[in-house]
Amino acid sequence: MISLCSLWLNWFLRAVAKPLFYRANVTLARTMQCHLLIPSLFPPGAVTQQNDPLHGIRAPALQTLLARATRTQAPPKEMESWLCESFGVTRQQDYPAAPLCLMAEGVAPDEHYWLRADPVHLGVERDQLVLSEASTFSLAQDEADALIATLNQHFAADGLHFVAPRAQHWYLRLARPPLISTHGLFQAAGRSIHPLLPAGQDAMRWRAMLNEVQMLLFEHPVNVAREARGSAPINSIWLSGGGVLPQNLTQPFDRVWAGDALARGLALATRIPHENLPENAPAWLKQAAPGKHLLVLDALRPAACYGDPDAWRRQLAQLEGEWFAPLKHALQHGSITLTLHAPTPAGTLSFSLTRGSLWKLWQPARPLTRYRPQG
């Protein structure tokens, strides 16, 4: 009896199980593994339900995907730290976002130390200086070039050199690394800058440098003209993401789709093909080939930073129609696997799904507030 059972098991493994396992692996290899990085998918709550972006939201496709997914939670991360860690970038004073972003702008960082030095507007609100970044104002390249020229003339003797490969993206090259740590631009956007200014051994020197920048820009002809026509003046810069270009990175994805400069710079640094984010999921599905894809959907971020619940809800509705619903349909047909990554200040959530996940009918769609990490 034992020998007959052994023979039968042997036959089953060779004739049935092995071919099925092989076909499953071939199918998975031919499937597009879609990773969506979605910062601000779960923005912080508010004092009132009316001001809570998640309250009362109906996004049927997204809610179904989240309900049927396998959920994991990792420590809190900003989008930039999630990207850097995924590609094997180690922290220097900061995660070195500046040289990687600069690569994406078409400028070789070489071996220099770079900081992002983004143009910002500081407004006074209740005796605090609140930061607005470039998504809130327009800035022409000739304006940026004139402002940059003034900064370079003033700080040349200090070994500082500013560049503006794009009007709204500025960078600062340093003669030697500073002993400071910084906060990212979107960590500061819409908030009081005081607790987020550079910290560390050289902090006082760099805070004094920022004061000099603000004085130089205060009555600059570009800003005088901007204020005359009712535009916000560019009255400061925001320093972040300092470092030298990292080496020996990993290749966690086969292709990157993003407008974000850091994501594109990481793709360049690791020789991964990269493209601009298509306008919607159907357009992406037509272009994408089998493999592991990273798509950065960062459109919710500005509205969350500035505490605009109506703008956040409108943007989520657009993502629901253009991305979540079509990707749910593709998942049902087995043409993709799907993982949604949602970094938040209280924890980084990941939701992973295969075609079979959608058969978890006992997992009903829930309000989005149920998924928000606490803290």
Automatic annotation (TrEMBL):
InterPro entries named among the record's database cross-references: Regulatory_RpfE
Annotated signal peptide: 1-17
Organism superkingdom: Bacteria
Record keywords, A-Z: Signal
Descriptive protein name: Regulatory protein
Organism: Sulfurimicrobium lacus
